[in-house]
Amino acid sequence: MDKLLRFNTISEYNAFNNNATKHPLVSVVDFSKAAPRSGSKMYFGFYTIFLKDVKCGDLVYGRNTYDYQEGTMVFMAPGQVAGVNSNGEIYQPKGYGVVFHPDFIHGTSLGRHMQEYTFFGYQSHEALHLSDREREIVQDCFSKIDYELDHTIDKHSKRLISTTIELLLGHCIRFYDRQFITRDHVHHGILEKFEQLLNNYFATDQPQLTGLPSVAWCADKLNLSSNYFGDLIKKETGKTALEFIQAKLISVAKERIFDTEKTVSQIAFDLGFKYPQHFARLFKQQVGHTPLEYRSLN
Protein backbone atom coordinates (compact mmCIF):
# COMPACT_ATOMS: atom_id res chain seq x y z
CA MET A 1 0.00 0.00 0.00
CA ASP A 2 2.93 2.32 -0.77
CA LYS A 3 1.44 4.06 -3.82
CA LEU A 4 -0.13 7.45 -3.08
CA LEU A 5 -3.00 8.58 -5.30
CA ARG A 6 -3.75 12.30 -5.13
CA PHE A 7 -7.26 13.63 -5.75
CA ASN A 8 -7.46 17.41 -5.68
CA THR A 9 -10.69 17.75 -7.62
CA ILE A 10 -14.05 16.04 -7.62
CA SER A 11 -13.75 15.19 -11.31
CA GLU A 12 -10.45 13.36 -10.73
CA TYR A 13 -12.05 11.20 -8.06
CA ASN A 14 -15.14 10.54 -10.18
CA ALA A 15 -12.96 9.45 -13.11
CA PHE A 16 -11.02 7.09 -10.83
CA ASN A 17 -14.31 5.46 -9.77
CA ASN A 18 -15.94 5.47 -13.24
CA ASN A 19 -18.62 7.94 -12.14
CA ALA A 20 -19.88 10.85 -14.22
CA THR A 21 -19.19 14.38 -12.95
CA LYS A 22 -22.55 16.11 -12.70
CA HIS A 23 -21.23 19.07 -10.69
CA PRO A 24 -17.58 20.18 -10.47
CA LEU A 25 -17.69 20.68 -6.68
CA VAL A 26 -19.94 17.93 -5.32
CA SER A 27 -20.76 14.33 -6.17
CA VAL A 28 -22.45 11.18 -4.95
CA VAL A 29 -20.06 8.33 -5.77
CA ASP A 30 -21.28 4.79 -6.49
CA PHE A 31 -18.23 2.63 -5.80
CA SER A 32 -19.75 -0.44 -7.45
CA LYS A 33 -19.01 1.26 -10.81
CA ALA A 34 -15.29 1.38 -10.02
CA ALA A 35 -12.90 -1.14 -11.50
CA PRO A 36 -11.54 -3.86 -9.18
CA ARG A 37 -8.45 -2.64 -7.34
CA SER A 38 -5.90 -3.49 -4.69
CA GLY A 39 -4.92 -1.42 -1.67
CA SER A 40 -3.48 2.07 -2.01
CA LYS A 41 -3.13 5.35 -0.14
CA MET A 42 -5.24 8.31 -1.21
CA TYR A 43 -4.94 12.03 -0.61
CA PHE A 44 -8.21 13.98 -0.66
CA GLY A 45 -8.42 17.70 -1.37
CA PHE A 46 -12.08 17.80 -0.38
CA TYR A 47 -14.55 16.53 2.23
CA THR A 48 -15.42 12.85 1.94
CA ILE A 49 -18.19 10.80 3.54
CA PHE A 50 -17.95 7.04 2.97
CA LEU A 51 -20.68 4.45 3.52
CA LYS A 52 -19.17 0.99 3.26
CA ASP A 53 -21.18 -1.97 1.98
CA VAL A 54 -18.89 -5.01 1.89
CA LYS A 55 -15.67 -6.33 3.37
CA CYS A 56 -12.82 -5.08 1.17
CA GLY A 57 -9.78 -4.78 3.38
CA ASP A 58 -8.89 -2.52 6.28
CA LEU A 59 -9.19 1.25 5.97
CA VAL A 60 -5.95 2.78 7.22
CA TYR A 61 -5.49 6.33 8.50
CA GLY A 62 -1.91 7.27 9.37
CA ARG A 63 -0.51 4.47 11.52
CA ASN A 64 -3.94 3.31 12.64
CA THR A 65 -6.65 1.05 11.26
CA TYR A 66 -10.28 2.09 11.36
CA ASP A 67 -12.84 0.04 13.23
CA TYR A 68 -14.44 -0.25 9.79
CA GLN A 69 -16.95 -2.95 8.94
CA GLU A 70 -19.91 -3.45 6.67
CA GLY A 71 -22.50 -0.73 7.25
CA THR A 72 -20.15 1.86 8.72
CA MET A 73 -19.40 5.48 7.84
CA VAL A 74 -16.14 7.41 7.83
CA PHE A 75 -15.63 11.16 7.45
CA MET A 76 -12.50 12.90 6.20
CA ALA A 77 -11.60 16.57 5.84
CA PRO A 78 -9.52 18.07 3.01
CA GLY A 79 -5.82 17.33 3.25
CA GLN A 80 -6.19 13.94 4.92
CA VAL A 81 -4.57 10.76 3.63
CA ALA A 82 -6.22 7.36 3.98
CA GLY A 83 -6.16 4.07 2.16
CA VAL A 84 -7.23 0.47 2.01
CA ASN A 85 -4.92 -2.36 3.00
CA SER A 86 -6.23 -5.37 1.08
CA ASN A 87 -3.12 -7.48 1.83
CA GLY A 88 -2.31 -7.56 -1.88
CA GLU A 89 -5.67 -8.99 -2.90
CA ILE A 90 -7.85 -7.50 -5.65
CA TYR A 91 -11.32 -6.47 -4.48
CA GLN A 92 -14.43 -4.86 -5.94
CA PRO A 93 -15.35 -1.66 -4.08
CA LYS A 94 -18.98 -1.31 -3.10
CA GLY A 95 -20.89 1.32 -1.23
CA TYR A 96 -21.48 5.03 -1.67
CA GLY A 97 -19.82 8.29 -0.84
CA VAL A 98 -20.62 11.98 -0.84
CA VAL A 99 -17.68 14.22 -1.71
CA PHE A 100 -17.74 18.01 -1.76
CA HIS A 101 -15.09 20.68 -2.22
CA PRO A 102 -14.66 23.42 0.44
CA ASP A 103 -15.44 26.00 -2.28
CA PHE A 104 -18.93 24.53 -2.60
CA ILE A 105 -19.97 25.41 0.95
CA HIS A 106 -18.60 28.97 1.12
CA GLY A 107 -21.39 31.36 2.03
CA THR A 108 -23.78 28.59 3.12
CA SER A 109 -25.12 27.58 6.52
CA LEU A 110 -23.11 24.36 6.15
CA GLY A 111 -19.93 26.35 5.63
CA ARG A 112 -20.56 28.40 8.75
CA HIS A 113 -21.11 25.29 10.89
CA MET A 114 -18.53 22.83 9.50
CA GLN A 115 -16.36 23.15 12.62
CA GLU A 116 -19.21 21.63 14.65
CA TYR A 117 -18.87 18.30 12.84
CA THR A 118 -15.85 17.15 14.81
CA PHE A 119 -16.06 13.60 13.44
CA PHE A 120 -14.24 14.81 10.30
CA GLY A 121 -11.17 14.70 12.55
CA TYR A 122 -11.78 11.22 14.00
CA GLN A 123 -9.17 8.56 13.29
CA SER A 124 -8.66 4.98 14.35
CA HIS A 125 -11.38 2.79 15.89
CA GLU A 126 -13.84 5.67 15.52
CA ALA A 127 -16.01 4.91 12.49
CA LEU A 128 -19.77 5.37 12.80
CA HIS A 129 -21.60 2.04 13.01
CA LEU A 130 -25.14 2.32 11.66
CA SER A 131 -28.29 0.46 12.56
CA ASP A 132 -30.52 -0.62 9.66
CA ARG A 133 -32.86 2.32 10.25
CA GLU A 134 -29.97 4.79 10.44
CA ARG A 135 -28.57 3.41 7.22
CA GLU A 136 -31.89 4.02 5.49
CA ILE A 137 -31.81 7.66 6.63
CA VAL A 138 -28.26 8.09 5.32
CA GLN A 139 -29.09 6.50 1.98
CA ASP A 140 -32.17 8.71 1.68
CA CYS A 141 -29.98 11.80 2.09
CA PHE A 142 -27.56 10.45 -0.52
CA SER A 143 -30.48 9.89 -2.89
CA LYS A 144 -31.80 13.42 -2.39
CA ILE A 145 -28.38 14.90 -3.19
CA ASP A 146 -28.08 12.71 -6.28
CA TYR A 147 -31.60 13.72 -7.37
CA GLU A 148 -30.57 17.38 -7.31
CA LEU A 149 -27.38 16.63 -9.22
CA ASP A 150 -29.40 14.90 -11.95
CA HIS A 151 -31.23 18.14 -12.62
CA THR A 152 -29.87 21.12 -14.47
CA ILE A 153 -27.79 23.29 -12.14
CA ASP A 154 -29.69 26.47 -11.31
CA LYS A 155 -29.76 29.14 -8.61
CA HIS A 156 -31.45 26.73 -6.17
CA SER A 157 -29.01 23.82 -6.55
CA LYS A 158 -26.31 24.98 -4.12
CA ARG A 159 -28.74 25.76 -1.32
CA LEU A 160 -30.72 22.53 -1.69
CA ILE A 161 -27.65 20.30 -1.89
CA SER A 162 -25.76 22.01 0.94
CA THR A 163 -28.88 21.92 3.12
CA THR A 164 -29.25 18.17 2.51
CA ILE A 165 -25.59 17.56 3.38
CA GLU A 166 -26.13 19.60 6.55
CA LEU A 167 -29.19 17.47 7.35
CA LEU A 168 -27.12 14.32 6.81
CA LEU A 169 -24.37 15.55 9.15
CA GLY A 170 -26.96 16.57 11.74
CA HIS A 171 -28.29 13.01 11.72
CA CYS A 172 -24.71 11.71 12.09
CA ILE A 173 -24.19 13.81 15.23
CA ARG A 174 -27.26 12.09 16.69
CA PHE A 175 -26.01 8.67 15.55
CA TYR A 176 -22.62 9.25 17.20
CA ASP A 177 -24.35 10.28 20.43
CA ARG A 178 -26.19 6.97 20.31
CA GLN A 179 -22.95 5.12 19.57
CA PHE A 180 -21.19 6.61 22.61
CA ILE A 181 -23.91 4.89 24.66
CA THR A 182 -24.43 1.58 22.81
CA ARG A 183 -20.71 0.91 22.30
CA ASP A 184 -19.83 1.73 25.89
CA HIS A 185 -17.81 -1.49 26.13
CA VAL A 186 -15.40 -0.11 23.52
CA HIS A 187 -14.84 3.03 25.61
CA HIS A 188 -14.89 1.28 28.98
CA GLY A 189 -12.14 2.54 31.22
CA ILE A 190 -11.10 5.52 29.05
CA LEU A 191 -12.06 8.03 31.74
CA GLU A 192 -10.20 6.06 34.41
CA LYS A 193 -7.16 5.73 32.13
CA PHE A 194 -7.30 9.47 31.44
CA GLU A 195 -7.28 10.29 35.14
CA GLN A 196 -4.48 7.82 35.84
CA LEU A 197 -2.49 9.28 32.96
CA LEU A 198 -2.73 12.74 34.54
CA ASN A 199 -1.91 11.41 38.00
CA ASN A 200 1.23 9.74 36.68
CA TYR A 201 2.18 12.85 34.71
CA PHE A 202 2.04 15.20 37.68
CA ALA A 203 3.76 12.64 39.95
CA THR A 204 6.95 12.89 37.87
CA ASP A 205 9.19 15.75 36.73
CA GLN A 206 7.71 15.55 33.23
CA PRO A 207 5.76 18.84 33.60
CA GLN A 208 9.04 20.67 34.25
CA LEU A 209 10.56 19.09 31.14
CA THR A 210 7.68 19.27 28.65
CA GLY A 211 5.14 21.66 30.16
CA LEU A 212 1.43 21.21 30.73
CA PRO A 213 -0.24 18.10 29.25
CA SER A 214 -2.29 18.97 26.17
CA VAL A 215 -5.52 17.34 25.01
CA ALA A 216 -3.71 16.10 21.88
CA TRP A 217 -0.97 14.48 23.99
CA CYS A 218 -3.50 12.72 26.24
CA ALA A 219 -5.53 11.52 23.24
CA ASP A 220 -2.42 10.13 21.58
CA LYS A 221 -1.44 8.25 24.74
CA LEU A 222 -4.93 6.70 24.78
CA ASN A 223 -4.79 5.84 21.05
CA LEU A 224 -7.63 8.18 20.12
CA SER A 225 -7.92 11.22 17.89
CA SER A 226 -8.16 14.57 19.67
CA ASN A 227 -11.68 15.23 18.39
CA TYR A 228 -13.08 11.81 19.28
CA PHE A 229 -11.37 11.87 22.68
CA GLY A 230 -12.72 15.35 23.40
CA ASP A 231 -16.25 14.40 22.41
CA LEU A 232 -16.11 11.21 24.47
CA ILE A 233 -14.91 13.02 27.62
CA LYS A 234 -17.59 15.68 27.13
CA LYS A 235 -20.30 13.00 26.90
CA GLU A 236 -18.94 11.16 29.96
CA THR A 237 -18.29 14.10 32.31
CA GLY A 238 -20.04 17.17 30.94
CA LYS A 239 -16.63 18.86 30.85
CA THR A 240 -14.31 19.38 27.92
CA ALA A 241 -11.05 17.44 28.02
CA LEU A 242 -9.21 20.72 28.63
CA GLU A 243 -11.49 21.55 31.57
CA PHE A 244 -10.84 18.06 32.97
CA ILE A 245 -7.07 18.60 32.71
CA GLN A 246 -7.36 22.00 34.36
CA ALA A 247 -9.46 20.56 37.20
CA LYS A 248 -6.81 17.91 37.85
CA LEU A 249 -4.10 20.56 37.67
CA ILE A 250 -5.85 22.75 40.25
CA SER A 251 -6.42 19.74 42.51
CA VAL A 252 -2.69 18.98 42.47
CA ALA A 253 -1.87 22.68 42.93
CA LYS A 254 -4.08 22.94 46.03
CA GLU A 255 -2.08 20.16 47.67
CA ARG A 256 1.29 21.66 46.77
CA ILE A 257 0.42 25.17 47.92
CA PHE A 258 0.58 23.94 51.54
CA ASP A 259 4.29 23.22 51.05
CA THR A 260 5.45 26.56 52.46
CA GLU A 261 9.07 25.73 51.70
CA LYS A 262 8.28 26.45 48.06
CA THR A 263 7.23 29.77 46.58
CA VAL A 264 4.16 30.00 44.38
CA SER A 265 6.49 30.58 41.42
CA GLN A 266 8.36 27.33 42.17
CA ILE A 267 5.07 25.43 42.39
CA ALA A 268 3.97 26.95 39.07
CA PHE A 269 7.19 25.82 37.36
CA ASP A 270 6.90 22.34 38.90
CA LEU A 271 3.40 22.04 37.42
CA GLY A 272 4.61 22.92 33.94
CA PHE A 273 3.81 26.63 33.68
CA LYS A 274 6.33 28.81 31.87
CA TYR A 275 5.07 31.93 33.56
CA PRO A 276 3.87 32.02 37.22
CA GLN A 277 1.33 34.73 36.41
CA HIS A 278 -0.48 32.32 34.07
CA PHE A 279 -0.74 29.83 36.93
CA ALA A 280 -2.02 32.53 39.32
CA ARG A 281 -4.60 33.69 36.80
CA LEU A 282 -5.94 30.16 36.18
CA PHE A 283 -5.95 29.37 39.92
CA LYS A 284 -7.96 32.47 40.78
CA GLN A 285 -10.33 31.78 37.91
CA GLN A 286 -10.97 28.24 39.15
CA VAL A 287 -10.80 28.72 42.94
CA GLY A 288 -11.82 32.32 43.46
CA HIS A 289 -8.61 33.24 45.28
CA THR A 290 -5.01 33.74 44.25
CA PRO A 291 -2.58 30.98 45.30
CA LEU A 292 -1.21 33.19 48.10
CA GLU A 293 -4.69 34.05 49.35
CA TYR A 294 -5.62 30.36 49.32
CA ARG A 295 -2.51 29.50 51.30
CA SER A 296 -3.29 32.18 53.89
CA LEU A 297 -6.96 31.26 54.20
CA ASN A 298 -6.12 27.63 54.85
TrEMBL record:
Gene3D superfamilies: Homeodomain-like. It comes from the Bacteria. InterPro entries: Homeodomain-like_sf (IPR009057), HTH_AraC (IPR018060), Tscrpt_reg_AraC-type_HTH (IPR020449). PROSITE patterns: HTH_ARAC_FAMILY_2. One of its GO terms (molecular function) is DNA-binding transcription factor activity. SMART domains: HTH_ARAC. Pfam families: HTH_18. This is AraC-like DNA-binding protein. It comes from Mucilaginibacter gotjawali.
